[in-house]
Amino acid sequence: MQQVNILFLTIVLLTISTRASHYRGGSFSWTIQNVSNNSITNQTNIPARITQRHSWRRSLGKNHFCDKNAIASSGLIGEGELIGSIFTQNTIPTKVQCTDFNEQFDYSSREISTLVTVPMRNIIEYAYQGCCWIALLPPETGSAMNLIVELQIGNVHLIRITRADSDGDHLRCRWGRSEKNECGSICSPKGLLKADPCELTYNAT
């Protein structure tokens, strides 16, 4: 697909060093909008659609609470923003209409797609900037979030990380980079991460 060869868009998550409380994580994806080959040749910019999804602790307060009434009335939840490296669309708000919630696991979520115009033949980065990630700690430490993966001590484990892309683009994995402020206080984690396929080898000895 020709569009893939002329535009590189990198989307990362930024962790902020702060007291964790209510941000439960999120994901981003992007697609190039349909344009003709002739218009690509004659243009310096191209339309792209950024899709983002975030979740927060539902019980925190009204800015993060979602229920059926909030969905029906298009209630806004969330905080923070997407920070971009291009002047034409350098910020995208993340406080938007809630789309779903879960009472048992105490989270509210929302998803939105935004059309942006980006320059061709450039490397472009978008990153979520906000605060208050819930700590990935065992329950006995007081965290409201359990471990994502439980491992048996004394064994070497292979953890396969699921990847998906809406239009079939090839995806690879990497650790967050401290020089780009992508991993806060948890840079240089233990384990061997394979980029493709996305697999984490962890020695729990």
Major sheet: 4 strands, mixed
Discrete helix count:
3
Spatial order of the strands forming the largest sheet? 1-10-5-6
Strand content: 35-45%
Number of strands: 13
Can you tell me the number of structural domains?
2
Runs in which pLDDT lies below 50 for 5 or more consecutive residues are: 1-20, 141-147
Mean pLDDT: 74
Shape assignment:
globular
Radius of gyration: 19 Å
**Helix-and-strand structural type:** mainly beta
Instruction: Indicate the percent of residues in helices.
Output: under 10%
Distance between the termini: 45 Å
Give the SSE string. HEEHEHEEEEEEEEEE
* Oligomeric state: single chain
Signal peptide: 1-20
Keywords: Signal
Can you give a write-up of this model?
The protein has 3 helices and 13 strands. The strands form 4 sheets. The chain has a 4-stranded mixed sheet with strand order 1-10-5-6. Mean pLDDT is 74; it is low at 1-20 and 141-147. The N and C termini lie far apart (45 Å). It has helices spanning 2-6, 37-42, 68-72; strands spanning 8-13, 23-32, 45-57, 76-77, 81-84, 91-93, 96-97, 100-102, 107-119, 123-129, 156-160, 192-194, 199-203. The chain is mainly beta and 205 residues long. It is globular. The protein folds into 2 domains: 2-136, no CATH class; 149-205, no CATH class.
